[in-house]
Design goal:
It is a single chain. The chain is an alpha/beta fold. The chain has three domains: 4-105, Rossmann fold, CATH 3.40.50; 112-236, Galactose-binding domain-like (Jelly Rolls, Sandwich), CATH 2.60.120.260; 242-491, Rossmann fold (3-Layer(aba) Sandwich). The protein has twelve helices and 23 strands. The strands form three sheets. Strands 6, 7, 8, 9, 10, 11, 12, 13, 14 and 15 form a ten-stranded antiparallel β-sheet that branches. It has an eight-stranded mixed β-sheet with strand order 16-17-19-18-20-21-22-23, sandwiched between helices. A five-stranded parallel β-sheet has the order 2-1-3-4-5, covered by helices on one side. Helix 1 (51-57) links the parallel strand 3 (42-45) and strand 4 (66-69). The longest helix is centred in the C-terminal third of the chain and has 21 residues, at 471-491. The chain is flat, with a radius of gyration of 25 Å.
Amino acid sequence: MDAIKVLQIGGKDNEDLVKDTYIIEWHYMNKEQLVVQEHYDVVFIEDQLDDQILDLIDPYVDAYHVFMNDHYKLYYKNHDFSKRKCAQFYRDAELPQIIKKLPVHYFNGQEGYVVDLEEIHISYQGSVCIEGKSSLVLSGNFHNEEVISLRRGFPIKKDQPMEVWIEYEKSKEIKLSVKAYEILEGSVAHIVKKWDFDQHDLKKALYFTSSYNGSINLMIYAEGSGQIKIGDIHIRRSRQGAGAFLVGGHLHHDHFREEFMSYFDPGNLKPPLNVYFSGYRTAEGFEGYYMMKSLKHPFLLIGDPRLEGGRFYMGSDYYEEKILKVINNALEICGFDHTQLILSGLSMGSFGALYYSAQLSPHSVIVGKPLVNIGSVASNETLFRPGGFPTSFDVLKGYAHALSKQAVNALDQKFWQVFDEAPFHGTKFVISYMKQDDYDRHAFTDLCAHTQGKDVMIYGKGIEGRHNDNTSAIVKWFVSQYKYILKEDFEEGVKHG
């Protein structure tokens, strides 16, 4: 594990609080001798610093990674620096516990994945239906019995908490529970810890901590009569309340337990708010953090961890309304309106940006490799793109409940029904697309056709190749257009609403 770099500025040097751990690399400076030339994972401020010193620190610490002593709360509370860094205030008595939790809360990177269906052992002997790679449907009478388990379990390391989130639907009469036990690393049968979770526990993520390295074997039990639909099983390294994937990140779910995630960074507090929808991503976590951070303005990352790498940001009414609410809340925090909003994304993320633009009427939509006819994306898997994106069948089946031509058309129309009714007010659509795209061949031309007569501006750049042939060229143009719009419409003081 990489050591966590911590900087304390001012006050009494608290290095003695970390003397027994190699995981924390502690640096102490007072404001008179302060020289900052490297990035820090956490900064503690125990002095009243002027703007010049705060500007010096600014590039070397991220939002949510700053702690300020409560003695200086009145001074810092409404300061731009504390707002931009989402600073947390602490009392002297709380400091030892905060420092103790640093390795759990502030480890580097993002860790998480969805269990492949092939890694699930089906113990239940009754009726079983396997729906693609998305879910298992078990029906019948359950006698408080094990119904599924993980074939290989999942690894856990000493003092590195893990969490598990299980997507499921079930008949009201059925009660679910989870049992788990840890096998010591290097052993085949030495059980060092056991867990029992009841139905009430399942309302939240299941947390696992251990004092040993090992692997956790997990089993789901069922009791009662009816049907159980078990979807994705998500396994993630936990920050224990400090954030999902990133410090400050959030997971949101609907009544079907389907999730999306969000991360907001206030940036320089100046318009616009840049929203980036993650592309298809098999490793769970946020995409585009450093790219959006480099633009300096406030940004919001949104990700979809369902299926193998995402489900195109569509879901229940509550799910989609929640995405809109998260975006609107970020606008409210910044004090911006919809003319100071940019939605963006690549590939799967382009669908999120375009779909929600119809309900937000932003200043701009910047996308690369657009996908809008998601039913057709699945249809193209049969002959036009065999074996290229089989998860598209799971997407189609999940939304349209069939794999027919009618289902393809119905899923395509889900986008256009929303998009065609949109009351756009001067929105710019900036689109880079692949000329021989084998996922959605007509996305750009369809968008041009469906925006005719609307109060929008649309322009694009075509690049030779199929969907995944030249991602670097798409990203290069995507970033260049972001920078151009920021400079021309915002940073030079002219905002075209």
